[in-house]
Amino acid sequence: MDQLSGAGLSTAIQSDNTCAMMGNEAIARGVWEAGARVCAAYPGTPSTEIMEEIGTYPAEDVNAEWSSNEKTALDIAIGASFSGVRAFTSMKHVGLNVASDSLMSQSYIGVNGGLVLGVCDDPGIHSSQNEQDTRLFARFAGVPVLEPADAQEALDYTRIAFDLSERFDTPVIVRSTTRISHTRSTVRTGSRIEPKAGMFHDDITKNVIIPTHARLRHGPVLQREAKIGAWFDQSGLVTWLRGSGTNGVITVGPAAAYVMEVMPDADVLKLPSSFPLATGTLKKFIESVENVVVVEELEPLVEEQLKVLGYKVEGKKYFPREGELSPQNVREGFEKCGFLEPSNRTPPVSGEAIARPPVLCAGCPHISSYMALNAVNARVAGDIGCYTLAAIPPLHAIHTTVAMGCSIGNAVGMARAGTDDRPAVATIGDSTFLHSGIPPLIDAVYSNANITVLLLDNHITAMTGGQDHAGTGRNLRGKEAPRVDFAELCRSLGVKWVREVDSYNIGAIHRDVREATEYKGVAVLISNRPCVLDPAKIKGEPVQVRTEKCTACQSCMNLGCPAITWDDEIYDGHRKIFIDPASCIGCSMCTQYCPVDGIRPLVN
Amino acid sequence: MDARANRNVTNVLIVGVGGQGVVMVSKVLALLCQQQGYDVKQSEVHGMAKRGGAVFGHVRYGDVVHSPTIPAGEADILVSLEWAEGMRWLDQLNPDTGIFISDTHKIVPPFACRNRRRGQVPVYSKETPAEILDEVAQGYALDAAGIATRLGNERAANTVLLGLMSTALGFPEEAWLDVICDFVPAKSVEINKAAFLEGREWVKTASVPEAPVVADPMPDPGPEFRNELEIIPAWCKGCDICVRMCPEKCLELNADQVVVIPRPDDCTGCRICEWLCPDFAIKLHTVAVVQPHTDEILAEV
Question: Which residues of chain B lie closer than 8 angstroms to A458, CB-CB?
Fold first, then answer.
């Protein structure tokens, strides 16, 4: 191993304490060690655990809070940076789209206290709507991006990011991926440094980004790129593993682990960052070997920059541009480009896989809302949350889902288009509504659109594992907090038809959905029932099928409840129903739907 | 980080259904390996896991571990907490030396029970333990859920499998028990210890258990039936009950407020419309379908 000389980082104090940490826990540790004081985030898989973990450090060290959306979180961090303290925000890749408006300006403005964004990409789309590459955003905004390859680097790079931010007067992105964020490995931790508390710097030519000032700032932003690239050359963060000098591999971030796995003997240059590039080291490396390939996950950012610089390198010609890298597709890439001989392997033993997609939970309060929407044959614009699962059979009740907070605007557009005689309905969860559902609801009222909004209030941010928000009455550290009253909020925006309904009351929700969709104008129906998983797991007395009554119509299977399955008993060639008492929570929705009174509480 | 170190890495893939405790098994193994001085990487995917989907955990340990995920076909041990999930990941197992360990316990997903037509069986993996154990290099299939239930808590099935797996890895029994005791809540320490030891004992008497039974076979469904719905328009008063109650949503009211069946192929013949119609306006006829190819065969004869 040939490490380049270090660049004297102020935070390079390390103890011998080691422990196993997930990448997200390591980022949180790095934030705490770097002495950050203000942190805010909106949850989003795979980034959620970062802010949850920061919330486990002492409140006197660091302020950790949930924001309504990623932009307000970044704005809070920016405000803290203006005031001279180190600040941090975390988000998933698509969260950066929401926060990008502020990031674009802040890139010009720069920082006072160090400002770092932890952004987690989702290559392979495990739990997202796309696999956009945050590194492109970094280049777009002209801010440096650090790309850890494991949990240790996640901690180290996060600490370094604060130094980099202050040294070069720029926000810094630490870019993780699902695989880094959710892989646990051994980490050596350090101690917290307490940076000297700064003060607000009164300088409107820097802090107030009006055209005159922005023109002055654009030049320095461009010059910063070259300066940071040169700093990377000297930083000690570029790793050069020497091989025979024939085949060279340039890699960065998570891809490095797969390269090391399948090409242990090649010349490898592992970069800490795709933007800006450590061009000096790259030049030396490319000149030292005969052939060069670039291995990077998702977009060919390093490859394209090297091509523009005039180097003969290849990358995406051999390695996939979509999906997650793996030891096998990286190996195949090396076989295609001739760095590795094709391997002969015993064919694997294989079995028949059955479909096991995620489903709404037994007793999920969203179920009846979508049953009621089906009954009125609604045209439903969905949103981001667990309830997106209602798009698939048997509920099959959501017809579009775009991005956070889009449902209400989409429904307004559908109603305006007027090509459908079905009632236009938007369904949106409580957390998503607070995130970005309020402005479109204002628009709907303002333009007197004929839509129904079904606000699915389950009192939690459920999909990401149960985080609090402004409508739950608790904050990130579990303390009591003011609570948004959704009905009052909607009325104050000018919605005339507002009603709350218990979604376990099937008759009531069917009636209210019918009346809301018949109302001419904006109607908001709030279905009100807590999530069955968070904050407390709900488990009541299960219900049981009265098998002698069951006519095997299987109407209850329309609910898609995972506790309902087939029985071995048969009626008229159809299977009767069995309810698994271990999964059933006794919500009684199936009891109310059964046409022959064939489902009753277990106790009777 | 020294990339040139000995790449002697052991790969364990643990799979199951959300809520079964896949992450617990992964974490206990990873923690133990770390205590034993190995470099460890343990990778899992969050998000959808709680919602009954397929869950997996990769644990890799050795002198130096690079990739967080196990290369395809290089898992040394595959531990499956549910039979069909074992089938899903079987091709990840090293075909020459891999050890397959699976619970024969079945969790039939709701999606397997969606076809309401006559004579349907739930969709589930067809492979039997005997067939699979015959194909893999080394395999064990046991009713871990049954063992755990006998011990007092079905949820300890994952620890039974952990016990069985521990016999393949050679760390001392006390080290395993220490990690388990540290890991599980105080009230379930005893049952988890018992489950772990039961799993370790089981391997000595390992035998091939019965195939997991998904559902009793239907009595001979006979010839295939077609469902024909006879609607008497004169008796229908457009009350809408059948339209709203049809599980397949294949009925509609037409412009004259009379029920029609625009999607006759969706009808599964459940008869609910026939029974619920207050005016006896709907009748279901099940008509045996004559197989066209049977005619051809007869013609040839």
Answer: none
